[in-house]
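Notes continue from the previous slide.

Worked example: a multi-chain complex. Inputs as given:
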Amino acid sequence: MTKSKEEVVQEFRVQSIQEAAIRVISRKGMAAATMQEIAEEAGVAKGTIYLYFRDREELVEKTFETAIGQLHARLDAAMDGSGSFEERLRALVTAQFSFFSENREFFRLYHSLRMTQGSASQQRRQKRNCQPQFRARIDRLAGLLKQAMDAGEVRPLDPARLALFLIEGSIAIVLERLTDDAPPAESEDVELIVSTMLNGIVIPKSKRSTH
Amino acid sequence: MTKSKEEVVQEFRVQSIQEAAIRVISRKGMAAATMQEIAEEAGVAKGTIYLYFRDREELVEKTFETAIGQLHARLDAAMDGSGSFEERLRALVTAQFSFFSENREFFRLYHSLRMTQGSASQQRRQKRNCQPQFRARIDRLAGLLKQAMDAGEVRPLDPARLALFLIEGSIAIVLERLTDDAPPAESEDVELIVSTMLNGIVIPKSKRSTH
DNA sequence: TGGTTGACTGACCGCTCGTTCAGCGCGGTG
DNA sequence: CACCGCGCTGAACGAGCGGTCAGTCAACCA
């Protein structure tokens, strides 16, 4: 089952084109990323891309799928640990933070894709292909929350809404960190998110110091 | 100081072109919205737009400024009320919810603008013109939070980060409501956000029922 | 009512983009 | 050495964009 030379070359090309696509889309955004620039970034001619991908749409789609697979693997690993609810939640947020700071460029691709709009057919296509990927992330976290609710650790709230709120809120902070010149330690932002979600921001009246 | 007939006509044109721009950008997204389609939507010829706006960029910019002014006015009104911190926070989230459900299309424009990427010069331009608008919203909420912290009602956390987390999390839920076929009552989602932010999701151990 | 104006139009232009394909060079074969 | 086969190239193409401007005509004056 060893790979032939041709297969190795093929895989190398596909991979380096995808990596170039991530970098260019991250830099310029989905709409402004041209095939020409992706080709230059990958060190091949424009035509070469079309030997490995049917068209621009397929390139973007396949690239996204490859990259998000890695993210999901990391997040699953973080969540499937056997700690307490709090530990698992903290692990999830931490994993998300570290993945995106290791892969800043992918993060922007992730966002570009989510927010891309276009013709009606493009929108339908995107809904079919990409939405399920995001939905899957929400659903997994929602599952974790539901579990904690059933165990009586967490108040009974709509788990899907909570998951959405938490993930999007975190993403906003990750995004902010990316453009921050001197962001605080990663753990500090993780703690802010986790403690806010778990215990809220209010100081109970019984614990307030007299002003 | 009464308006001349020409001024009235001029204002009407400007306004209807801007409204058309909002609708088209909302539908197709920033990149895919063409001058041709905006013109058709407004019921004028493409060239007419250029009598009222220097170029596409100015149209988008002016349109955005006009629209976001309304949003800020609403949110300020909600926050400047003289209630308790909790009441003002609830009012803010509620105002955001109702504004965006009354102006679904503007909401999508808002998002399109935030996520637009492009050439280096476009990015710089956008940073100058649009980022401050978003920043202003964050800053206002951050001010409210800071006030509550100084009063000892809220734990001392980075107010800017908290504001970002809250606003983006809420926006995600608003967005979800827009595509939901049968979303829960607005007040229900507002309550979820406010109570989560204030008190967290955890049930204190002392109050847990035995399983 | 004939003349003048200027708001409006839409065919047109230059340009950029995704996509194609005739041809190039190179490693293997007889 | 001549001859392919094939991965690759990049000039060329057509579609579609933002922006232009010569032409149109209803409204208004003299």
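Summary box: Residues 34-36, 46-47, 50, 55-56 of chain A lie near DNA strand C (CB under 10 Å from a C1'). The longest helix of chain A spans residues 5-28.
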